[in-house]
């Protein structure tokens, strides 16, 4: 568990990593609710989030007293890309501006390397987050493309 202080507010976060089969019904519900809240409602993007890849992923969950605050799913090479990958990177609107997004990515990278070894990681990133991902060592590796009417780029962290 890590305790963060932001503007005098104490925020505790605990990181849990689980396979799909190890997720409880409540955890799965919180994951799907957060992804829907941000990717469908907040970003006003109707798309099919349930893509039959969750069953093959490791799920990284950042949990605060208020519930699920941050989440990613991790894949070994050959599932989403030819390289290992991190996807569905999301921070709850109520938990933003506490550094959880950066910590989420650092935890995700560390877990991925621990589970499958040090290797390049590929992501499909929303283009507006390019500088954030560059600050974590990712480099743009594709031209901009549209996915669900949102500009995206592929990025690789060697």
Structure description:
25% of the residues lie in helices and 37% in strands. The chain has three helices and nine strands; from the N terminus they run ββαβββαβαβββ. It has helices at 25-42, 100-116, 130-134, and strands at residues 2-6, 9-19, 58-64, 67-75, 84-91, 121-126, 139-140, 145-147, 150-157. The radius of gyration is 15 Å and the shape is globular. The model is unreliable at 1-8 (pLDDT under 50).
What descriptive keywords fit this protein?
alpha+beta, 158 residues, 25% helix, disordered N terminus, single chain
Number of helices: 3
**How helix-rich are the residues, as a percent range?**
25-40%
Structure summary, number of beta strands: 9
Structural class comes to: alpha+beta
Low-confidence stretches: 1-8
Distance between the termini: 28 Å
Largest sheet: 9 strands, mixed
Shape: globular
Q: Oligomeric form of this entry?
A: single chain
Give the ordered list of helices and strands: EEHEEEHEHEEE
Question: How many whole angstroms does the radius of gyration measure?
Answer: 15 Å
Q: Strand content of the residues, in percent?
A: 35-45%
Summary of the model, kept short:
The protein is of the alpha+beta class and 158 residues long. It has three helices and nine strands.
